[in-house]
Design brief:
Layout lengths: L1 H19 L4 H26 L4 E4 L1 H4 L5 E4 L1 H26 L8 H17 L3 H20 L7 H30 L14 H18 L7 H8 L4 H9 L1 H14 L4 H23 L4 H29 L2 H36 L15 H14 L6 H13 L8 H33 L15 H19 L1 H11 L6 H4 L3 E3 L2 E2 L11 H22 L28 H4 L1 H6 L1 H4 L1 E8 L13 E8 L2 H22 L6 H22 L1
Antiparallel strand pairs: 1-2, 3-4, 5-6
């Protein structure tokens, strides 16, 4: 009943948007209210499902395509609770955004409703037809949301890149499902458990990883994220990044339980590709000059972290170690929670910041968090979470990932040991760069000097503030209540790994360990007590030692250059802050520089013997430059060559048919 009612609420919201449009302010907000209602119902359904017996729902009457079923089990429950708890807060923020002044377009709300409905059906689908039907609807919603506003010339290419990657993802899953269905003679997921080891099993595993990896943004399928996410309007970006993209994570989890142990070479590939994805994502995020692109590239980084931890679980399955499976899945699930919470918070806060400033260029956003207190505060909490700093859930999840990757000594296969060691090195470097990246945002965007022209009245409305508070609490509370969160996750992972094994991560009621006893411990809950106490003690000590002068300290504007005589516009800029990284990672980023002499004109004469130069720095994305662009040239060249066949003569066409017929006959004879 809750499932049907939630989906009905999404359908009503989409109809209101298509019928009433966006001409009236009250009508613009109504679809998002229905979205919040539907999301709340589905989140409640997920929470209830985690502790109940799995049930199967016959949906053949609704779809009319043979026998179609939906299944509610603890794994589906944990993703319903997470994704639609987030969707509830995002829809509240979207209500305030829709009621604000701005350029609103028909189709955005209905696209979000289709996205939410598709996510719900994907999570509860238990056969290939229903799953793929909802998967294609999700791709359609991505296209609608990235192309609805038509505000810039960059939007059509972004929409096509998004839908193109979605079609590649769907095609890979379709072929993988067909292989499994052909072997078992059934489209039901439950029947695929019996597919034993062999070439078909390995091929299906590879296609599943490619299909879901393209959705979450693994290399080399990550190119749509930096252009696709910024193309969506307002808080809707949070629906793409924090909600919809995580169905790829759900798919990996679900098919881990269906297909069982993967081949070792695939495990090593997943570990290394995940590590490289994380490093490339954060490296490119660190040098971007637009806030939306930084957040988008950070999604690539987090996808790499999640998949790397997932690779640890695959390694455990390959050698039959249940504890290694548990620590890998637990770390990956914690990172999924941290990423979903923080990324949704960032994109919702960025929507308000961008609307108030009229741009997302970092150079124009210095200190905007000091004026937009609600959005700036939520943004700061989310940034600290993605930087992996205490006392947030991001610190807990990244600690578990690093601890999981340190278990390579428990393996007795050299390839798996090297895979975990390489992935561990990449993840360690990634976590350091993440701290640098989000430190730049905190210092320059949130804590910098107040920008002129920004009023607090441009802050989001009441529902938006409630949504921001809920999202920000989602980054903090799970860390403070980490023992309860682990118990919650252990129930959800029940279909994949025994709950008792996951709960071995609880060394004591308030102390955590990476499943393996005696390796290391952490208490995020006690950090919530220890850190404030340490701050109070240090502050009191400083006040006492200063002799009363502590509060009379000279104060200067934040983040000015340390060079003597340099201040104001010439102080440290976001570009300059990241310039060191451009030099250090020049080979990874493909940095190219051009220097030219410029004439300042008679108004600004230069001393004799001196010159004024301008330096331009460009970062080259290797996957796009060295993979997709050559492939595009080959494709266009082939298309131009094929066009010549359209203007041939009858004799040539007969010759083509004859050659094709001879080729078919030759292949047939060879096969027989």
């Amino acid at each position: 009943m809750l499932l049907a009612t939630g989906l009905a609420a999404f359908a009503i919201g989409a109809l209101v948007d298509m019928i009433a449009g966006v001409g009236r302010r009250w009508a613009r907000a109504v679809p998002y209210l229905f979205g919040a209602v539907g999301s709340g119902l589905l989140a409640a359904l997920g929470a209830r499902t985690i502790g109940s017996v799995p049930i199967t729902i016959d949906a053949s009457w609704a779809l009319g395509a043979g026998k179609s079923t939906l299944s509610l089990d603890p794994l589906a429950g944990i993703f319903l609770a997470l994704l639609f708890g987030l969707a509830f807060a995002v829809c509240l923020c979207a209500v305030a955004w829709a009621r604000s002044d701005g350029d609103h377009h028909r189709g955005v709300a209905s696209g979000l409703m289709v996205l939410l409905a598709s996510v719900a059906v994907i999570v509860v689908a238990s056969d290939a037809f229903v799953f793929l039907f909802a998967w294609e609807l999700l791709t359609l919603s991505f296209y609608v949301l990235t192309s609805a506003t038509r505000s810039t010339v960059h939007q059509p290419p972004a929409a096509w890149a998004t839908v193109g990657t979605g079609k590649v993802s769907g095609a890979a899953l379709l072929f993988g499902f067909l292989l499994l269905a052909g072997r078992t003679g059934s489209l039901a997921f439950a029947s695929w458990h019996g597919v034993g080891p062999g070439a078909l099993h390995d091929a299906a595993w590879t296609l599943v990883v490619v299909g879901f990896g393209a959705k979450v943004g693994l290399v080399p399928f990550e190119v749509w994220i930096p252009v696709g996410y910024p193309a969506a309007p307002g808080p809707v970006r949070a629906g793409l990044a924090g909600i919809a993209a995580n169905v790829g994570v759900y798919g990996l989890w679900r098919f881990f339980g269906i297909l069982g142990a993967p081949p070792e070479w695939l495990v090593v590939a997943v570990l290394l590709v995940g590590g490289m994805t994380a490093l490339l994502g954060i490296a490119f995020a660190a040098v971007q000059s637009r806030l939306t692109r930084i957040v988008a590239y950070s999604s690539i980084e987090n996808a790499g972290l999640i998949v790397t931890a997932y690779g640890v679980a695959l390694a455990g399955a390959a050698i039959g170690s249940v504890q290694l499976v548990a620590v890998g899945l637990l770390a990956a699930t914690l990172q999924t929670v941290a990423h979903a919470m923080a990324k949704s918070t960032l994109f919702v806060a960025v929507a308000t910041i961008e609307a108030a400033a009229g741009t997302d260029e970092l150079s124009a956003l210095r200190g905007i968090g000091r004026q937009l207190r609600w959005s700036g505060g939520a943004f700061g909490i989310a940034a600290v979470t993605l930087a992996g700093l205490p006392p947030t859930i991001g610190f807990v999840s990244e600690w578990f990932i690093l601890e999981a990757l340190m278990q390579q000594f428990r393996l007795h296969h050299l390839a798996l040991q090297l895979g975990l060691a390489g992935a561990g090195a990449l993840v360690a470097l990634t976590t350091g760069l993440a701290a640098l990246t989000f430190l730049r945002l905190l210092g320059l965007v949130i804590l910098g000097p107040r920008p002129p022209g920004i009023r607090r009245s441009q802050e989001t409305g009441l529902s938006g503030k409630i949504g921001l508070v809920l999202l920000a609490l989602g980054c903090l509370v799970p860390a403070a209540a980490s023992p309860w969160e682990l118990r919650f996750i252990a129930r959800g992972l029940g279909p994949l790994v025994p709950r008792s094994v996951v709960l071995q991560s609880l060394k004591q009621p308030w102390v955590l360990q990476p499943v393996f006893r005696g390796f290391s411990i952490l208490s995020p809950s006690w950090l919530w007590i220890a850190l404030p106490v340490a701050v109070i003690v240090v502050t009191l000590g400083a006040v006492g030692c200063s002799g009363g002068r502590y509060f009379r300290i000279r104060r200067v504007p934040s983040w000015h250059s340390a060079t003597a005589g340099v201040a104001g516009p010439s102080s440290t800029t976001p570009f300059g802050f990241a310039n060191l990284l451009r030099h250090v990672l020049g080979n990874v980023l493909g940095v190219s520089r051009t220097v030219r002499v410029i004439d300042p004109g008679p108004a600004h004469p230069l001393p004799p013997g001196s010159a004024s130069v301008e330096t331009r720095t460009r970062v080259v994305e290797p996957v796009e430059t060295y993979l997709y662009r050559p492939a595009r040239w080959v494709g266009l060249g082939s298309a131009r060559a094929a066009k010549r066949l359209q203007s041939g003569n009858l004799a040539a066409y007969v010759a083509y048919m004859l050659i094709a017929l001879m080729g078919v006959l030759a292949i047939t004879a060879f096969l027989h």
